[in-house]
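Training component of the fellowship. As part of building independent skills, the fellow (R.M.) carried out the full modelling exercise for a liganded target. The chosen ligand was NAP. The inputs are recorded below so that the supervisory panel can assess the work.
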Amino acid sequence: MDLGIKGKKALVCAASKGLGYGCAGQLAEAGVDLVICARTDGPLQEAADRLRGFGVKVTAVACDITTQEGQAEVLAAAGDVDILVTNAGGPPPGLWSDWDRDDFIKALDANMLTPITLMKAVLPGMMERGWGRIVNITSQSVKAPIPALGLSNAARTGLTGYVAGTARQVAGKGVTINNLLPGIHDTDRATSLDGGVMKAKGISRDEARAQRFATIPAGRYGTAEEFGAACAFLCSQNAGFIVGQNILLDGGATNATI
Ligand code: NAP
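Fellow's submitted model of the complex:
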């Protein structure tokens, strides 16, 4: 399918690996020039080189996107963008009683206020130019809470509320904002969560994965490529009537009718 976005420019955050890279890869394949970021320069530059293989321009900015300095640096490098994909690492797991105010502020900064800051920075230009696409990578925990990820549940649900109202205020200017909600995908994040299950249950990695596969009707983890393909569709010309939606990519794991 021709996504109709060749020659557009995208800022994809936290994109040297995992889901962010999956989104960057599918946008690059559609002919979109990219600005990407991650904290660690080596893997970021390697990712940028791979993405240049699609024949698009790629600018790589090594920074922490959850800091004000990082956001300023990335936004300065990006300039006027047509597409924004927000993403950052997820908060650590724990028990509801583990976290104090500082932990919540950190999670809110990373997974709620960072995407909001980036959206506020790019929205005026998109609205003026009459076209824009924003996709926020959130989590299935927005639809169905994951008990051990209370910080994530809280921060991402806050972002979802902001998007719900904002998406409807900017849609008339040709700008769409939607959220993609990953279930378990085969990335470093999943590997680290597998590690937690191995440790807690004293089982091997294969056993931990098999146990988690069994909780997913599709019987497997998702891939970063298929996640990226859904993101690229939401960023396409064809998706202009999809506004303020929360789209689950979880292999059927969330047991809900709607
Ligand atoms: P991942 O494989 O660990 O990749 C994370 C990417 O983000 C890396 O490129 C990392 O590079 C970069 N990054 C992390 N923190 C950053 C920061 N503060 N500033 C800039 N770049 C940063 O993670 P993932 O699985 O793709 O997950 C992406 C998001 O989706 C996370 O918020 C995660 O919680 C959420 N999620 C994932 C799953 C899943 O199953 N994979 C499920 C639900 C939700 P550096 O480390 O070099 O910065």
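The panel noted the following from the submitted structure. The beta strands are 9-12, 33-38, 58-62, 83-86, 132-137, 175-182, 246-249. Residues 14-20, 37-40, 43, 64-66, 87-90, 137, 139, 182, 184-185, 187-190 surround NAP (CB under 6 Å).
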